[in-house]
Amino acid sequence: MNIVTLLPFIVLIGAMFLMTRSAKNKQRQAAQMRDQMAPGTGVRTIGGMYATVKEINDDTVLLEVAPGVHAIYAKNAIGAVLEDAEYNRIVHGVEADETPAVPDDASSLTEGEPEAAAETKIDLGKEAPAAADESGKQDEKPEAEGTEAKDAKRDGNTDAK
Question: Are 66 and 49 within 8 A, CB to CB?
């Protein structure tokens, strides 16, 4: 046989080996995560329900899904074992005692700056054309030409033939 005819089979076997290897790694990591479970830890099931572990048996786990409400789940149904801070943040809405990265108002951002900088006004409006007269009316001819060109393109009238 020629090596060219064997090449597709070799590539296929290599791909199958890589896929089974990654699947075994995921299973091993999931087993390690389930071994971290202890009574009192917070977990998330594969269905997305958050609960507290009460008992751990060989293949099952007793979870408290609400105060006084217990349910038995298979160990394989545990999707993630959560840290206490993350579980409390998600379930109870308790935030960690950290100062916010963004202040509630802008006053703390301007502390210590000189007052002269605060008095400087910046005009964010459009600049008036140089052809404005004293009464505030602007020259309408350039504006009219611009709108005609815009309207012509919008209506589909182009110079292309």
Answer: no
Written as six digits, the tokens of 91 are 């379930």
Check whether 86 has a pLDDT greater than 70.
yes
What number is the average pLDDT over the span 73-92?
Answer: 88
Tokens of 40: 């009192």
Q: For the whole model, what pTM was predicted?
A: 0.47
- φ/ψ of 27, rounded to 5, equals -65, -40
Q: Report whether pLDDT(63) > 90.
A: yes
pLDDT at 60: 92
69-74 and 78-82 strand pairing:
unpaired
Strand order in the sheet with 50-56: 69-74, 60-66, 50-56, 42-45, 78-82
- The Cα-based distances of 2 to 8, 10, 90, 156 in angstroms read 12, 13, 61, 63
For residue 79, list its beta bridge partners: none
Look up residue 33 and give its two tokens.
Answer: 């995560």
DSSP 161: -
Q: Is 142 left (phi over 0), alpha (psi -120 to 50) or beta?
A: alpha
